[in-house]
Each structure stands twice: as C-alpha cells, then as structure tokens.
Amino acid sequence: QSALTQPPSVSGSPGQSVTISCTGTSSDVGSYNRVSWYQQPPGTAPKLMIYEVSNRPSGVPDRFSGSKSGNTASLTISGLQAEDEADYYCSLYTSSSTLVFGGGTKLTVL
Amino acid sequence: EVQLVESGGGLVQPGGSLRLSCAASGFTVSSNYMSWVRQAPGKGLEWVSVIYSGGSTYYADSVKGRFTISRHNSKNTLYLQMNSLRAEDTAVYYCASTPNKAAPPDYWGQGTLVTVSS
Questions:
Q1: Closest CA in chain B for residue A50
Q2: CB B104 to CB A47 under 8 A?
C-alpha cells in the first residue's frame, strides 16, 4: 500500500491563507482524481472536507479548496478562522480497493 | 438523519478476540460501502477494511487473516471480528460509510476504543 506524505504541521494567523500538501507518486496521486481531505478537531471523528481533488460536500465553506499538480495534492484554507484549528488528513482510494491516508498535518491558528 | 453508533470496544489481552458493532440508522448498510478505520492514541488514521454493497471485502495488510468484516442486513449493522489481537491494534475504531464505490467515507461514527494489554 502506498504512502501519502504530509507536513507534520502548518500554522497561520486569522484571516491568512494556508496550504497543506499531500505528496504521492505517479501511480497514485498522479494517476487518479480520488484524493480527499478530512478535518479532525481534537477528540472528534473525521469530517470530509474535499473529495475528488477539488469538490466540496454540502455544508463545507468555500474557504476550503483543493487542487492537484503532478503527484502532489493540496488543501488551501483561506480566511483562516480559529475554528479551523484541527488535524487534516489526505486520503486516496487505490486501484486495489484499499484506502490510504496521509500521516496528517496539525494546523495551528496563531 | 444518518447515524452510525459503534460499540463493543474494551480491554482485551494479547492474543484475545473482540467483536465490534456499528449500528446504522437513516440509510441501509447493505446498499452502501462500509469501512472500518482506526486511530492509535496520538497517531494518524489507518484504514482497516471495507465491505462493498455486493459483498466483496478488502483488508489492510496489517490485519489480513486476523480481522473479518461482515454485516447483518436485517439488523442494519456492520461488524468487525478481531482475532489474535496485538498491542499495536490498540486504537479508536471508527465505522464509516459512503454510497459510492471508490468514494471517500462521508459519514462516520463516534468511534469505540479497543485496548490490547495484559
């Protein structure tokens, strides 16, 4: 099973924008548009924020956006708010019907 | 309203067994793609297993041969039978669902804690 690489932590001040990267390989991220992003505040279950690289489920603010370039997917949060402080995970469904998660990125709002 | 409620977690000795349940409401388990995802204390998310609406099952290498995913259609409940448990299986176990194949789970339960320790 492939591994997705995320930075351990990122930070930003309220109102700023932050971007979290998720790097895979040409065999996974680079080949499929199945990258998703989850938000997990402490002590809670994960919440789906982005699916298929750049689509937002109903109810997710448009401050959250996703993109992909080559083997790297990215989650950008604009207009940072205190409530955005959480762990963020990228994920990818592989061709062998398994789901792979990145290691997670802790977002700190300064 | 869609709801997933896990139960069955607890303390078990290494080598022991445990069965987790995930009771669903607001949708039909057998028509969805149901997954188990776990999170060790202070660690990231790890996918464990999935059962497709057609009944096909898939497992992470770390649990293959030890864990079995299943469902009871009339009870609208998902299960995870865990055998030969190891200390490294200690985690919060979440069940999650999606209506579409190869789509990320969009509904999650609150999780149940499994602790493997002597």
A1: B104
A2: no
